[in-house]
Amino acid sequence: MERNFQSAEELAAALHAGEVTSLELTDEAIDRIEREDKALNAICVPDFDRARAAAREADQARVRGEDAPLLGIPVTVKECYNVAGLPTTWGMPEHRGFLPAEDAVQVARLKSAGAVILGKTNVPLGLQGLQSSNPVYGTTNNPWDQDRTPGGSSGGSAAALAAGFGALSIGSDIGGSLRTPAHFCGVYGHKPSLGLVANRGMVPPAVPALPVDLDLAVVGPMARTARDLALLLDIMAGPDPLTYGVAHELTLPPARHERLSDFRVLVLDDHPFIPTGTAVRAGVDRVAEALRDAGAQVDRHSALLPDLAEAATLYTELLFSGSVARFPVEAYEQLQARAAGLSADDQSLDAARLRGMVVTHRDWLAANHRRELHRHGWRQFFAEFDAVVCPVTPTPAFPHDHNPDLLACRIDIDGVEYPFFDQLVWAGLATMPGLPATAMPAGFSPEGLPVGVQVIGPMFEDRTPLRLAELLEQRLGGFQKPN
Hints:
14 helices; two-stranded antiparallel sheet; single chain; Amidase signature (AS) enzymes; eleven-stranded mixed beta sheet; alpha/beta; globular; 15 strands
């Protein structure tokens, strides 16, 4: 495989052996971006001059005998991270001119690890949605089919990885924003346990970059191999030095097992709120068969599994609870009136979204208590199982849909339309309780589109789903270069 598609691990070995320089790798990556990205629009903010300067410095550091985990390796960064001297807009035209003066903590960690930052990758407007399109930078296309989306909100990062634009990227996830693009583009993404990775500086433009504890949202790594995910997570993980880092150091426990035959896995492909499409169901079955063939314990049902319908409703309410915080008073009052008219028997996800938008603090605390009960249920579940394998979304990548009213959008599942946001229930399975989840390739649809699954593990045991993904990669094969 040509060097633009090699893993960070392989590139590091080549750099150590003197087979290539960082400047050569960086020039090759830039050449490929300039040649291929006109059709994809994955790199929305190139930073090639500084990348070449960083590559030269990495080469000089290696001559001096210095080393670092990512020394000289080209990477990209999602647009929503602050990078000093580059615009952070979140795709919002009113913020075109915002230039942060300080790197986000994760950008600083990438640089400390020796990475060469090629530029920033595209996002949806305000990071809202499962597509990557905005008025500032336009639309990003899927490298496998340019008429389809690469997903969102980390769609630019996933498309860049699939197209060979850098070995690694960093993204964020609250509604599958790491996992869905990985699934749509045939790459890997890891949603860390809630609170494991510091997020300071991954903040809307012009908002102070403070070390806040986010509810549901995390930042995390993206790559073309599971081992690279683990490598990048080790660099990203750990408390913010301004807060918990003053008193705490991180020690992640090792993976529960090193062999597939020792894993106990629950495989799911049915959800009470939305069907699973044929192509994704086949991908889940492919992984289940690989697990069984390797001697793993594979179950399809367990009484220990927390209730999926309640989990989806709770996740939806929590997810939408902050979505209208800056709405005008009149618009908010209209939502309150609509929510008051809901029947108590209406337990649809549409109703959960509306209730979440106008939830009171008292009701939010009650929802948070229900979340803690779910977390306790997951602790009991993971006393008997090591992981859950399930879909990321019900379908492979779907065609571009630029309807600005996301609540009016629909998703086609085997010829039947469903509310667009209902597909988030699979992402919410890990997000609501804060569990780690690794998205990994699991084959292709009959149309040749990538199909992925997610591997969910116990909270703060991120190495367990990462190791399981790595072992499955060895049996199933992993990333494949787009045609």
